[in-house]
Amino acid sequence: MADAADLGHQRSVPALTYADAPAAIEWLCRVFGFEEVRRMEVGDGRIGNAALRLLGEEIMLASPFEEAGTLSPRDLAALHQQITVYVDDVDAHYLRARDEGARVLAEPADRFWGGRTYWVEDLEGHRWTFQQQLRSVSDEDSAAEMLKIASNED
């Protein structure tokens, strides 16, 4: 049996659902810098599966298929997932996303876990975190900072 890596696949691949998958492909490529790798249309205007790549990693996306239980975040009451992508220059990436109309949730800032990070929502409400790792922070130090924040301590 072949290993996933032997077939050119990463082991974990996020799969997102978009009400307008063709528009999402164009938007994700233009705004976040993905490149389209594959698109499989099912003949009724929906996309059964598409793959996009950024920095050597892929995501998949498709149109909603209610018969299979998939919907766009537009149709959901609460956040159901968040995707984190590590980039080489988070500030330049942020400016591009902001200038192209991504909904900014938090501007780039240095975070206690050692990353410089910003949060945005895409055109249908998927939440994305883009991060540039600046320094290494131990799990113990990160956990202590999270506990302080959760406890509303200074």
Structure summary:
The protein has 154 residues and is an alpha/beta fold. Helix content is 22%, strand content 33%. The protein has one domain: 2,3-Dihydroxybiphenyl 1,2-Dioxygenase, domain 1 (Roll), CATH 3.10.180.10.
Commentary on this structure:
- By secondary structure, the protein is an alpha/beta fold.
- 22% of the residues lie in helices and 33% in strands.
- The chain has one domain: Roll (2,3-Dihydroxybiphenyl 1,2-Dioxygenase, domain 1).
- It has a 4-stranded mixed β-sheet, covered by helices on one side. It has a 4-stranded mixed β-sheet with strand order 5-8-7-6, covered by helices on one side.
- A hairpin with a 5-residue loop joins strand 2 and strand 3.
Number of helices, counting only DSSP H or I runs of 4 residues or more:
3
Number of domains: 1
Q: Write out the strand line-up for the largest beta sheet, numbering strands in chain order.
A: 1-4-3-2
The mean pLDDT is 88
* CATH H level, superfamily name: 2,3-Dihydroxybiphenyl 1,2-Dioxygenase, domain 1
Q: Based on Cα principal axes, name the global outline.
A: globular
Main beta sheet: strand number and arrangement? 4 strands, mixed
The CATH class name reads: Alpha Beta
pLDDT < 50 stretches: none
Secondary structure: helix percent: 10-25%
> Which percent band covers the strand fraction?
25-35%
Give the tally of β-strands. Answer: 8
Judged by helices, strands and strand pairing, the structural class is: alpha/beta
What is the CATH third-level topology name? 2,3-Dihydroxybiphenyl 1,2-Dioxygenase, domain 1
